[in-house]
Amino acid sequence: MSAPTRRYHVPSAIRRSSLRIEPNEARELVAQGALLVDVRRHEDEELRLDGAVRVPPDEIPSRLEELPRSRPIVVVCT
Hints:
With about 80 residues, the protein is an alpha/beta fold. Helix content is about 15%, strand content about 15%. It starts with about 20 loop residues before the first helix and ends with a strand.
């Protein structure tokens, strides 16, 4: 397997996404069983989201098997 790369990651601040949802919708999805994935880097460790799985961007390729395919995933980067 090749080393992780940042080429796949385009910050949403510069790329508009039709998949972006409002916070209330994200809360509702999580309440209905969606997995909450926090993609902030480890430098932000003091900021925790209850119930979220922390997967920094550079670790996503090597940790894909941890993400379920059978339920929605809400990705957050605050």
